[in-house]
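[Automated response] Your request has been received and processed.

Submitted sequence:
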Amino acid sequence: MNFSSDKPIYIQMSDRLCDDILAGTYQADDRIPSVREYAVMLEVNTNTAMKAYDQLAREGIIYNKRGVGYFVSHDAREQILQSRRKIFMQQVLPDVFRQMRLLGIDIKEIDFCWEHSK
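Generated structure:
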């Protein structure tokens, strides 16, 4: 995985795991890779992977079965969707609209481009 410098690596790792949950790679109560497996897969330090898993566990996205591993929480997908929608609406969309105003782009142009890109 290529990591960007705008966010800590453990956050990018937890974001990737959340992406996998949203994409259906992992369903509710599915076992996810162990901390070591995930660290090897993404070529990072095990401590960094552990930090990502700790964050996701604190947020209720995953849970740990002692001696068995980590699993996806039953409502993880809904939690991730709710969180990401909130971030999109409060942080991303306002900047998009600001850029549209500055560049003189009308919403109708966006709709036209969207319809013709399908």
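Summary generated for your ticket: The first helix runs from residue 9 to 23. The mean pLDDT is 93.
If you did not submit this request, please reply to this message.
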